[in-house]
TrEMBL record:
Family, similarity comment: Belongs to the sodium:solute symporter (SSF) (TC 2.A.21) family.
Biological source species: Intrasporangium chromatireducens Q5-1
This protein's UniProt keywords: Cell membrane, Membrane, Symport, Transmembrane, Transmembrane helix, Transport
Cellular-component GO terms for this entry: plasma membrane
Compartment list: Cell membrane
One term of GO molecular function: symporter activity
The protein's name in its UniProt record: Transporter
Domain of life where this protein originates: Bacteria
Gene Ontology BP annotations: plasma membrane acetate transport
Transmembrane domains' residue ranges: 6-25, 45-69, 75-96, 116-133, 153-171, 183-206, 226-252, 264-284, 317-341, 362-380, 392-410, 417-441, 453-472
Chief location of this protein within or outside the cell: membrane
Ranges in a coiled coil: none
A Pfam family hit: SSF
Length: 513
């Protein structure tokens, strides 16, 4: 493949990202612009931005790599990641927008009227954001190494710098335009090469696939503890979406609850169309690049397929296009993660106020801190397949914020004590499994299966903990619960008492302080 063409593609995407982000800077002036784009994003633009942010390194590279290695069992990944938005639509999209929050900790304080619940939520937002940033940086390193032979840290550093510049410039207002642009770029970057690859496959007939056991690859539920691992993966992907801070924060940018629901419907269409493509790349990788399995380079199958099938300028152009799409995936997802982490760091953990000017400065400082820590964590973590690293992050989100949101929106009985206990129990159990996997701690038998896919154990445990602890502390229900439930469930145009909570109030004035 032509290294020059691939490098040029990466540079073009990086520069285009900065240019589009600079447009957002022209209209980013207030704290609300930086956190939630002043809640003025329409459904089509927001759905494109949500999809661009959601389709990460795991979607662009990791799904194809896991399907190449493990076959039919991994089809649950694109299914689950898409279906997660259906559950988000049904349970939380509109109430989240009506809450008026900027972040998940804002929602925790609104619903529970507790500073302690807010603090625990803040810690978990940062933890999940860091865990999700690591595979984005890892994917960038894999991409640049595959294309140019450069050390992994070069690609990781490039993504960190570009993302930092974009977020520092205009916050959520800026990256909304960037992420919408990235979705359509990623779609074209996968769709164009796969068309040529399928045509070539049809022209060549069935090639030799070596000694690979295709029967085992095509047959689901064949490995040890396969049934548990599959159900646990389903639980994590279906429920994890609604607990991802960088996904949830995008629904705060809609104009109202109705627009949030419309956004989610469009997202389902955009994701459903996109996720067909990584599956095709995984199958085509089995046909044309099965040696990547033994070489331990399955995550690079999307990048290497064009040069395996074609030669000359065609191979160079198709590889450059895929490289551009891959970098767009890293940049868009990492941007959303950095916004969600920086928002929580500046509002809560660093205890800065959010008045105009000071809030923006705090947000920018938190951006630099968040990116630096995530980059350091990437350098010291073990080489976990990109898609599996994201699976584990989904397990943490499903074990913490999913129970808080579902119970907080649908059940009046949830208390601050129940929320805190559930977040701590679910977060501790799932994070233990994630860190053990990321740092290469292997276990055999059922313990190993649970550490690999913890959601089937940790999610029910978190739900049960929240319910039991809330029932035991029913006398400590929030004082303004009735107003809060009206705020979450009543359409915005109804003139009802919704309480006085606003996320731009000072920390000391917030309810429960």
């Amino acid at each position: 493949m032509s290294t020059a063409a691939s490098i040029a593609a990466v540079l073009v995407v990086s520069v285009a990202t900065l240019v589009v982000g600079a447009y957002g800077l022209r209209v980013s002036r207030t704290t609300s612009d930086f956190y939630v784009a002043s809640r003025g994003v329409g459904p089509i633009l927001n759905a494109s931005a949500v999809s661009g942010e959601y389709l990460s390194a795991a979607s662009f590279l990791g799904v194809a790599g896991l399907i190449l290695v493990r076959g039919a069992d991994m089809l649950w990944l694109p299914v689950g990641w898409t279906a997660g938005y259906l559950l988000l639509l049904v349970f939380v999209a509109a109430p989240l927008r009506r809450s008026g929050a900027y972040t998940l900790p804002d929602f925790a304080q609104l619903r529970c009227e507790s500073r302690a619940a807010r603090t625990v939520s803040s810690v978990l937002v940062v933890a999940i954001g860091m865990l999700y940033l690591v595979p984005q940086f890892q994917g960038a390193g894999i991409t640049l190494r595959t294309l140019t032979g450069a050390p992994r840290w070069v690609g990781q550093l490039v993504v960190a710098v570009v993302v930092s510049l974009n977020v520092l410039a205009g916050g959520m207002r800026s990256i909304t335009f960037v992420q919408a642009f990235h979705y359509w770029l990623k779609l074209v970057a996968l769709l164009t090469p796969v068309f040529f690859l399928l045509v070539m496959w049809g022209a060549q007939g069935a090639p030799d696939v070596g000694t690979l056991d295709l029967a085992e690859w095509a047959e689901p539920l064949t490995g040890e503890h396969a049934l548990y691992l599959t159900y646990s993966l389903v639980v994590a992907t279906f429920l994890g979406t609604m607990g991802l801070p960088h996904v949830v924060v995008r629904f705060y940018t809609n104009r109202d609850g109705r627009a949030a629901r419309r956004t989610t419907l469009v997202v389902l269409v955009l994701l459903g169309g996109f996720y067909i493509l990584p599956v095709l790349y995984g199958v085509l990788g089995r046909v044309f690049a099965h040696d990547l399995v033994a070489a331990g380079r399955a995550d690079s199958v999307v990048l290497e397929l064009p040069s395996r099938v074609f030669h000359g300028p065609v191979a160079d152009l198709l590889t450059a296009l895929v490289a551009a799409g891959a970098f767009a995936a890293f940049l868009s997802t990492a941007s959303g993660l950095v916004v969600s982490v920086a928002g929580v760091l500046s509002q809560d953990l660093f205890r800065w106020r959010t008045e105009h000017g000071q809030g923006i400065r705090a947000f920018r400082i938190a951006t630099g801190v968040g990116v630096s820590v995530a980059l350091l964590f990437t350098f010291v973590s073990a080489d976990v397949p990109v898609a599996h690293a994201v699976e584990l992050t989904f397990a943490v989100a499903a074990s913490t914020f999913c129970p808080m949101l579902v119970l907080g929106i649908c059940w009046r009985g949830l208390t601050a004590v129940g929320t805190i206990c559930g977040l701590i129990v679910g977060g501790s159990l799932s994070m233990t499994a994630v860190l053990a996997t990321m740092f290469g701690i292997d276990r055999e038998g059922w313990l190993g299966a649970v550490l690999t896919q913890p959601a089937a154990v940790t999610v029910p445990t978190a739900f049960a903990t929240m319910v039991v602890a809330s029932v035991l502390t029913r006398h400590r229900r929030p004082e303004h619960l009735a107003q809060t439930m009206v705020r979450l469930h009543a359409p915005e145009h109804l003139g009802l008492d919704r309480g006085t909570f606003h996320p731009e109030q000072s920390t000391a004035a917030r309810r429960g302080s």
